[in-house]
Design brief:
With 137 residues, the protein is an alpha+beta fold. It is 28% helix and 39% strand.
Length: 137
């Protein structure tokens, strides 16, 4: 039905040494748990809590940004039960819902990771847009 909440529960960023040009930046996003969450939303709806880890590793022990949190999704009781049963039995989530959840996590986490990385002097973990000026214009 709808995503109704998002929060970070853990924020960590550190730089242990200078990043060399050979170092690669890798990121990983994992859904770590899916379960019911009690919220006062009404008798016709229930809430599912998707917990996640978003980890960015800078080179070989150069630095790291780790973000943990959750996304809350509201739906009808039969749908929420099916979501949780699928997760517990198969570790799978329906693709449309998974897309919405992951997009929300990536949107919020990339911004937070960019800010945290800047605070500890880590480079951006993705390519930022740049303006180029053509000569003669």
């Amino acid at each position: 039905m709808a995503i109704v909440g998002f929060a970070f529960t853990h924020l960590h960023a550190e730089r242990t040494k200078k990043l060399s040009p050979k170092d690669q930046i890798k990121s990983e996003l994992k859904i770590t748990n899916v379960d019911f969450e009690e919220l006062p939303v009404g008798k016709a709806e229930e809430t599912v809590k998707f917990e996640f880890d978003f980890n960015i590793i800078y080179g070989a022990q150069t630095g790291q940004t780790l973000l943990k949190g959750y996304v809350l999704n509201v739906d009808t009781p039969p749908v929420t039960k099916q979501i949780i049963d699928n997760w517990k039995n198969k570790k799978k989530i329906e693709p449309d819902l998974m897309g919405k959840v992951l997009n929300m996590i990536l949107f919020k986490s990339n911004i937070m990771a960019l800010n945290l990385g800047q605070d500890v002097n880590l480079p951006p973990h993705f390519k930022l847009p740049r303006v180029t000026v053509k000569k003669g214009e």
